[in-house]
Design brief:
There is one protein chain. This protein folds into two domains: 2-80, no CATH class; 87-186, Mannose-Binding Protein A, Chain A (Roll), CATH 3.10.100. It is built from eight helices and eight strands; from the N terminus they run H-H-H-H-E-E-H-H-E-H-E-H-E-E-E-E. It has helices at 2-6, 11-27, 37-46, 48-59, 96-104, 113-120, 127-134, 151-155, and strands at residues 64-70, 75-80, 123-124, 144-147, 158-165, 168-175, 183-185, 187-190. Strands 1-2-8-3 form a four-stranded antiparallel β-sheet. Strands 6-5-4-7 form a four-stranded mixed β-sheet. A hairpin with a 4-residue loop joins strand 1 (64-70) and strand 2. Residues 1-5 have low confidence and may be disordered.
Length: 191
């Protein structure tokens, strides 16, 4: 019960967030050409629990925006659309196991991407979603972002990250305990 009340926005926070989302939506119409803000806003108001997650995306520097719609479910899809990997989600390992390995060695990353995403109520972008985002613009030209890693790769100790360099989207691998000041993660949320 306490968790539910913690994950609620005040009416002032809600209005501030909705205004920011609306401004970003209107400033970036190329990301969602066939969508109308009034429908997005109605969906957001019908699912206030999702506003908390969007606020978490916003407050950590993700600049969430609508990038599409699942018309069969009536859901709008938000991605972190900040130019670089969200500033307050960097210097993190891929997952809790990777973070624990670093901490055993006395090195303390800022957290882990999977754990932070779960706490925020969002999902890490998959490779396909990351490439979809990159079709909307040039993102991560100076940073990189962890992406959802297939189980078979993670079982062997690896994790995937991606970025854009030289006009091309690259997907790489690293060990899950790795973390860098320029690597964070991007998330998605269905509303």
């Amino acid at each position: 019960m306490a968790m539910e009340s913690t994950n609620r926005l005040s009416s002032e926070q809600r209005e501030t967030l909705l205004a920011a989302l609306k401004a970003r939506f209107e400033d970036n119409m190329s990301r969602h050409k066939d969508l109308e803000w009034s429908k997005v806003e109605a969906r957001l108001k019908a699912h206030p629990d999702k506003l908390w997650s969007l606020q978490e995306m916003e407050s950590t520097g993700g600049e969430p925006d609508v990038i599409g719609c699942d018309r069969s479910a009536g859901a709008f899809i938000f991605f972190d659309c900040s130019k670089e990997s969200p500033r307050d989600r960097r210097k993190v390992c891929y997952d809790r196991d990777g973070q624990a390995m670093r901490e055993k060695k006395g090195v303390h990353p800022a957290g882990n991407a999977l754990g932070m995403a779960t706490a925020m109520g969002i999902d890490l972008l998959t490779e396909e979603q990351y490439r979809e985002l990159q079709r909307l613009g040039s993102f991560d030209t100076k940073t990189s972002s962890w992406i959802r890693t297939p189980t078979n790769i993670r079982t062997l100790g690896g994790a995937l990250f991606a970025d854009r360099r030289y006009g091309h989207v690259f997907v790489y691998h690293n060990s899950a305990p790795s973390f860098y000041s320029s690597r964070g993660f991007r998330g998605s949320l269905r509303v």
